[in-house]
Amino acid sequence: MSKGLLHHIEIYVSDLNRSVDFWGWLLEELGYSPFQKWESGQSWKIDDIYIVFVQTEERFLDVPYHRCRVGLNHLAFHAISRQHVDDMTKKLKDKGTTILYTNQHPFAGGEDHYAVYFEDPDRIKVELVAP
């Protein structure tokens, strides 16, 4: 184990079932495997890193997530190639996922940054970027 590597990420979500449908598909497309599952959460793992989604308690659902507030702005994942980004963009569109920055896609991060940016069900920004 290397010092400083990310161990896990835990994200609270407004609707666990909706998030599990979205993230389960996406993470398995990226090579993650289902890891843990319990009444109020589920996780996926790749190598020694896992991502956890937990149902937010009702009393905390009054203020929705917004990536411009203090906290997480987005999650970025490696693609294996530009073609992988293109293939995933099509799949995301076919699933009705909101693609961000469509007028600049796939260079919204700059002319040397080939990526697709999109939103999860809680509007958390996600990026898939080619090497």
Question: Could you describe the 3D structure shown?
Answer:
The longest helix has 14 residues, at 16-29. The protein is an alpha/beta fold. Helix content is 21%, strand content 31%. The mean pLDDT is 96. It is globular. The chain has a four-stranded mixed sheet with strand order 1-4-3-2, covered by helices on one side. A three-stranded mixed sheet has the order 5-7-6, with helices on one face. Strand 2 and strand 3 form a beta hairpin. The protein is built from two helices and seven strands; from the N terminus they run E-H-E-E-E-E-H-E-E.
Task: Write the element-wise H/E pattern from the N-terminal end onward.
Answer: EHEEEEHEE
Tell me, rounded to a whole number, the average pLDDT: 96
Biggest sheet: strands side by side, in what order? 1-4-3-2
**Annotation field: number of helices:** 2
Poorly predicted parts: none
Helix/strand structural class? alpha/beta
Query: Over all CA atoms, what is the radius of gyration?
Result: 15 Å
